[in-house]
User: What shape does this take?
Amino acid sequence: MSELRLGEMAAIVDIVRKVVMQWDDFVGSVEAMSQDYKDLQARYERLRREYQDLREAYERLVRDHESKLQTLAELQSAHEALRRDLESGTDELRKRFEALLHEQQVAIQHLEDLAQRLQP
Assistant: This one.
């Protein structure tokens, strides 16, 4: 009977040893997952801060872009006004030039007429 009990005791010890080994493996897995969780949590916080920084930079760029678009629109409007003024001024100068050219031709004609009258 002591052999039977000794055999049962060996089986129980073997079972307890397996349970302890499994428990040790379980505890090791929990510790590893806990460390992984801490690492992932730190990574998440770092990525969250980076995302926030990028978001703020993006918003600044959008505001800057909108400001530059507004400035560009104003410059285009001013350019168009200057172009119209230039065309208007060019037309006015062309008209004055043509008037002066006509007056010059009239003056030349008068001078030619005078020259013919003064010739014997």
